[in-house]
Amino acid sequence: MSTYQKTIGIEVHCELKTNTKMFSSAKNGYGDSANCNLTLLDLGYPGTLPLINDYAVTLALRAALALHCEIHREMYFDRKNYFYPDLPKGYQITQAKTPIGINGYVEIEVDGKPKTIRIHDIHIEEDTAKSVHQGNHSYLDFNRAGVPLIEIVTEPDMNSSEEAMLYLEKLRSLLLYADVSDCKIEEGSMRCDVNVSISKDDTLGVRTETKNIGSIRNVGLAIESEALRQEKLLEEGIAIQEETRRYDDASKETVLMRVKEIGNDYRYFPEPDIPKLCLSEERIRKVQEQMPMLPDDRKARYQALGLSDLSSSKLIQNKPLSDYFNLFLEDDIDFVMLSNLLLGDISFYLNRTMKTLMDTTLTKERMLSLLQHLYDQTITTKNVKDLLEEFLETDKDIDTICKEKGIQNISDTTLLSTIIKNIIEQNPESVKDYQQGRDRAIKYLMGQVMKETKGSANPSLARDLLEEELKKQ
Ligand code: ADP
Ligand code: MG
Questions:
Q1: pLDDT confidence tier of residue 263, bands split at 50, 70 and 90
Q2: At the topology level of CATH, where does 413-471 sit?
Q3: How remote is the CA of residue 30 from the centroid of ligand 2, in Å?
Q4: What's the Cα-to-Cα distance from 39 to each of 25, 217, 307, 368, 400, rounded to whole Å?
Q5: Cβ–ligand 1 contact at 210 (below 6 Å)
Q6: Which site among 19, 228, 255, 468 is 20 to 30 Å from 158 CA-CA?
Q7: C-beta 7 within 6 A of ligand 1
Q8: Is this prediction's pTM over 0.70?
Q9: What is the per-residue pLDDT for 411?
Q10: Which of 134-148, 236-250, 360-374, 458-472 is predicted least confidently?
Q11: Which residue intervals of the chain bear CATH 1.10.10.410?
């Protein structure tokens, strides 16, 4: 066991889901051909003037509220000055002094116990162009220049790689549900910089920053390997330097990028080309009121409807399924049955065919009819497996599909009775078990009935008939 305690603080950049850029009318589009989503402003031409994208501000405000931040009512933007080829203006427009949100928090659950990760601030800024390196050449794609970003900075509140990963998963889920970003780490719309230090007491050690790690899992690995590297240095009596590193996927180690210059000065000053931005109480209230239902609220609601902890979590991990489930919140239905269908056969079908619910014919009305048939036991869960594909791909109703496919649910009392009598005759041991009050006998015999009828016996009718028959023995 290491005698060092890890301390971790995380900075996350998220691209906002807007149609256009932060300060220009160019399209915000990922995956388009290089350098087609541009205006002169994005190229840093002199004489061009930035104009605030109001919807980006709304999304940033929504994110800040979802992270329980205090909101700055009056903001201005700052220029962060540095030279780099991906930054043609020579400065990035950001919010250094008046971030839209401060003093927020995110709750995570570590080994079943709640832990609060404090958010230092969340601020709006613009993305840089993207450098692409091929052989000896470097290329610049300005499609990304000026894309609206929020940067979310935590306090150094995490103490293990597990906590860091839990935080990132929770943050990602919050931002996805708040509908502010698509948070795709692999496409770069969510990027994580991880600050790590170690120490033996309460004073914080010198930290390093590992930039742009490509997955949440790699964040965990990067923290472990970086903490180990620092520990080895300290044990050899070598002081840690403040430096920027990157994570190398192949060697599973962090690699030095640059040592932080002392007094690194971006010469921040207020951006003179953008007027002060004021948020009215009315606007803040509206954004709060229109906040989509967030993951923790969904979980509480699902559990109140009778879903297990596991089912609730699984639904929330899949936003389209959770959104679909929410269409039924005001209905008088069996919610456990609905969640079982969505997480079971329907998810299985969607995964197998690589479709989403939108690609199927499963309207709310059709789902209600499926639930009603199951509830009335006119079909069994086994029948669902046989009819689902057709039901999800066509507009045919359940009865038609059953008729066409010869799917039956045996509710014929005489037929079932005969089958049951035969089974009882063939299983005298189970009858004895039953007479001695063993529950498993009924379960076993029901299993035999289902096997014999290939799962198409109406279960509650079969059970009634079975018990009736057993009592006669
Ligand atoms: P910078 O301006 O260099 O980005 P900040 O003070 O804004 O530095 O901190 C960036 C991140 O580093 C924050 O998430 C903060 O919590 C974290 N951090 C600061 N000090 C430490 C430390 N000693 N160990 C680990 N993380 C730290
Ligand atoms: Mg920083």
A1: low
A2: Arc Repressor Mutant, subunit A (1.10.10)
A3: 24
A4: 7, 37, 51, 50, 57
A5: no
A6: 255
A7: yes
A8: yes
A9: 72
A10: 458-472
A11: 413-471
